[in-house]
Structure formats: structure tokens, C-alpha cells
What does this fold into?
Amino acid sequence: MSDQSPTPNENPEGAQFALQRIYVKDASFESPRSPGCFADQWKPKVNLDLNTRHNQLDGDVFEVVLHVTITTRNEADEVIYLAEVQQAGIFLIKGLEVEALSQTLGSFCPSVLFPYVREAIDSMVLKASFPPLMLAPVNFDAIYEQSRRQREEQLQQQSDPSPVIN
It folds into this structure.
């Protein structure tokens, strides 16, 4: 008889993470100035808006949605195109403490989804006959940490008693 401890994969009580499905939840593309914008000189101003949300589907199964909106404007500040994608994934996440679960849902899962949303947006932009838009990598760990600090500051401000003026 061996006195070996189980490996993490053999331990039913250990943390588990499994990607179950990746899908586009919603996508849209608008080019309000077409075809006139094709005659303009191409000097776009690109704005990236990025949001994430998650919800618990059943027990240890979570849906994470990465919502990316790209707004591209010309020099006159007119919208050339607006591309919007909600890239979603279903993840099985078991055995994590509350903080680790929060970080997994807020940072790791969006990092998994980002290459897919990046490709979906680039595909839409190219099909609309605009130059490729290669979104730069995003540091979801830093975004999560900043969001966590902001929540802590808000909670601290709410719990601090208001000064009494006599």
C-alpha cells in the first residue's frame, strides 16, 4: 500500500476550471458615413470601451461576457464606424475561495475571451472595407485590481461616519 497524496487532478476537493463553450452573444456594426467616408483621408481616432460581467448559471457554472465597443471617428469627430461585440463563455469553476473566484471571473475568464472578441471585431471591420484594426493586448489583471481597489475605497467611504458639525 502506498502512502502517496493525490495529485491536484485526482483530488475531488481541489480547484477545478473548465471552459465549456465560447460564443458570440451579440454583435453589431454600423458605418453611418458610408460610402462617403471612403473618399476621406484615413486618419481615424479609435476609442475602445471594454466591460465585463458574469452571472452564475447553475452551481459551479458561470457565464462571463466580455463587451467591447470600438468607436472610430474622423478628424471632424464624426463616427466612421461603430463595432460592438459581446463575446461570452461558459466556465465550470469549482473549489475556489471567494476572492480567487472573483479574480478568475473578473480577470482570467475575460483574458480567455479576448482573442475571440478581437478576431470578431477585426473580421467585421475588414468585411466593411476598412483597414484592419488590430486591438492591442489588454491587461485584465491590472483592470481587475484597479476595480477591486475602487470598490474597497467606496466601501471604506460608506463605512466612515460623517463628521458632526456643532
